[in-house]
Each structure stands twice: as C-alpha cells, then as structure tokens.
Amino acid sequence: MIRIRGVTKDYDRRQILRGVDLSVDDGEMVFLTGPSGAGKTTLLRLLYAAERPTDGEIWVAGSRIDTLPRSELPQLRRKIGVIFQDFKLLRRKTVLENVTFVLRFHGIGQREAHRRAYQVLKRLGLHHRQSALPESLSGGEQQRVAIARALVYQPRLILADEPTGNLDADLASELLSLLCDINYQGATVVLATHDHALLESLPARTLVLRRGEIDYDGMWPP
Amino acid sequence: MIRHALAEGWLILRSRGLISPVLALALAIPISLAGVTVSLRQWLEPVIDLSDRESVVAVLLHPRLDESQRRLWISEESRSHPDWKLAEVEPEELAKRLASWFPYLEEVLQREGPQMLPHMVEITTRSPERVLELKDTTSVLAVGPTSSVNRVVGQVASRFALVLLLVAGALVSGALLLAAVWVHLELHRNAEEIAIMRLMGATEATVRGPFLVAVVVPALLAAVISVVLTVVAVGWMAQLAAPLGLAARGASFVVLACQILGAVGLPLIAAFITLERHASREES
User: Fold this and answer.
1) Is residue A130 a part of any domain in this protein?
2) What ipTM does this complex have?
C-alpha cells in the first residue's frame, strides 16, 4: 500500500526527514510515534500529497505520488481517508454536511450520502448533533466529525494525525477500536501519535521517528 | 457538479451580504464611464473627418473675361496646380445660392437677372491658403475665405478623441484591477475551505465552480448597472450637446455589448488567473 524510498524533506534548509525508507503492506495497522518535531506530520502530509518530498520516491496505492501531476491528485486523495490533528472542518457547514460533502466527490447521491453519514455519525455518537455547526461543538466532538468524514467513504488507506489528541480516555479507546474494525475489514491504517497509553493498548507495528529518521520499526512495546 | 457550484456559490454570495452589490457597483462605474467616453468619441467622428477634408474656395472672375478667356484661365490654373479641382459655377446657380444665403437679395436678383453676376469658379483643395495668391492677378475680382479652420478643428478633435480612448483604456484597466483584487480577496477569505476541499479529493472544477458562480452573479449585476448608467448618461449628454451641432446620439449597440462582455469577462478572466495561480502556489 505504501512504499517510501530515500525520502528527504527540507524546509528552509532545515532537514525534517532524512532518507526515510518504509514499506506498509495492504491491510496493515501501523503506529507512527516519536517526539514533537520528529517529522510525523510531515511524513503523513507527504503520504496524502499535501507536499512533495525534496528527494526520494513515494508510492501509495500503486501510484508514484511524488511526481503525480496536479490533475491526478483528487483521484489519489479519494482513496485516502485523512484525520487531521486540527480537524479541518468546513466552518459554514453543519456536521452532517461536513461528512456528506466528501461523498459528493465520489459521485454518491444526496439521499445515500445522508444515509451513510448518519450511520457513521451514529457510530461515533454524534447523530444528535448533525445540524450543529462545528464552532458550537467541543474539541472532542469536532475530532469525531473529522473522523466520521474520513471513514464515511470507506477508504483503502486511513492516515490519522494525532486523532485522540482531543478525546478523553474512553473516547480514545472507542476510536481505536473503530480503527481496528476498519483495519480488520481490510483498510490500511497509519496512525501518528505520541500517546504511549494508546500504543500500549494495542500491540501493532510501530515506527519511531527521531530527528527525521526511522529509529525503530517493530512491535510495541519493543 | 453544476448544482454543487450553484449551491455553494449562492452560500458564498449570501455570506458576503451587501458586499456583492457594492462590488458590482464599483465595477460598473469604471465600465460605464469607459462606455460614455467611447460614445463621446463616436460623436466626434464627423469633426475628426474634417482634419483631412478638402476646402472649397470661391473665386470670382473679372466680368470682362468672356467665355473663351474663362475656359483658358481654368485650364491654365488646372495645369499649374494639379492638386486643385476647378469647377465653374454658372451665374444661375450662383444666383440661387445668393438668394438662399441672403433672402433680401432675391428681389434684386429676380429683377436684374443672373447675368449681372460675375462668373464664379470653385477650387477644391487641401491647401486653401494658396488660392489667395490669385487675388493679385488681373483675371480675378475676389477670392473667398481661405481659412483652414476646419482642418485645425478636425486635428484638435482627433487628438481629443485619442485622449478619450486612452481614458477609456485606463478605466477598463482599473476595472480589471478591481476585479482581480476582488477575486483575490475572496480566495484569501476562503483559502482554508479550498485547501480542505482539495485535500478531500475535490477536483479543480469542483473547487473553482462556486467561486466562478460567486463572481459571475455580481459581474452580471455590474453589466446591467453599467448598461443602464451608460444609456442614461449618454442620452442626457446627447441632449446637452444637440445645440452644439455635434452628431450626438445615444450609446451604440456595439458599446453596450462591449460593456456587457467587459463587466462579465474581466472578473472571469481575473478569477481564472487568480484561481490558477492559487492552485499552483498551493502545489508548490
């Protein structure tokens, strides 16, 4: 599903990632951890082509994305569900609209989109707030809307950047079990977190990034 | 996709409130001023034509010249001045003209008959001043006005028309700049939303559609306002200019069509360029 070869990323002459090599198979669940500034978010951004690497090759779902033309990016991104650290919700749209608008890009009709969105929101305990605007929601609720939006079209790859950062322990555990279910159904999940409790709650392959390099690649705890 | 663009575009317009009509008005004013300017320039066209129009100078021949002498004089002058066109005006014709210019002469002319009038030759030339030289010859009794005022007026009008065109160009450039700034600000205001839509897999057409709708609606409003303003302003100025003898008429269809194209086209061009630049910048 993911193949990265010799990827480096520089920002203003500062090297964030240094020659990262990585391979994630279809249906794998991978934790990405490391201290703040280690390059976790940058690596995820490269995976959904929000940025291009300074050097190296990135392959996602069979496409080489570091050289992918702009016109083909939407096609790639529709295969990926991204859960952002800062939610990235549309402020002028309700909870339900935030979830359904991505289904429109997949050519799904309004009625079916509403049905699917309602199901996901119900699963995340947010169906009663479907008409609310994001600004009226708590941080945790906004995070769950962002999660619902990433899951609603059942992508083959889910990239989650600190998805439990705004959730309490119960909700974090609920989210983890949700991601496990989705992974069990065949989706590949890459979850960036520095929450050690979360890592220890589920034995899975874990990549530890330190100063832009993969310091550890194996089961957690080591 | 069109439904999505219309729905989202309407949301953007609604969120702007009164800004859209104000922007439409701001866009309509320079475009209608440009239309008025071009219309004024059209009025000047007949005056500009004077700049290269030939003047006609009347020359009265001495009454003692008989017909053969007159013919000889005409042929000699034609030979020595190849750029002159000489045409003899028969006394009957001259009498008619005098009667129409000076009605109080009609009675005298009828009583005495046209034979009492001298023979007149009309010389058509671009340099009427040179005809004045004939005044000192024995065959010529008098030479009519030789002023080139028409040409000077035409040249002034031509320069004024050029200035009007430059002003119209500056106004249209101002409108384009306004449209570009407007679209740029709109994109800036919605940059986060656009970025999210792109990250979620929206195509460029999906992202651009609502913005183009949000630009086209005020642009159409601007087109209507500019056409109305131009028709009213040009009509009013035509009334004012009528006593001056200018060929004052209402705004032409071509001017109004150009205004509509400009009011809709300029913001659309600005929107396309700005959206393209925005997408390229985001990619880099």
Assistant:
1) no
2) 0.84
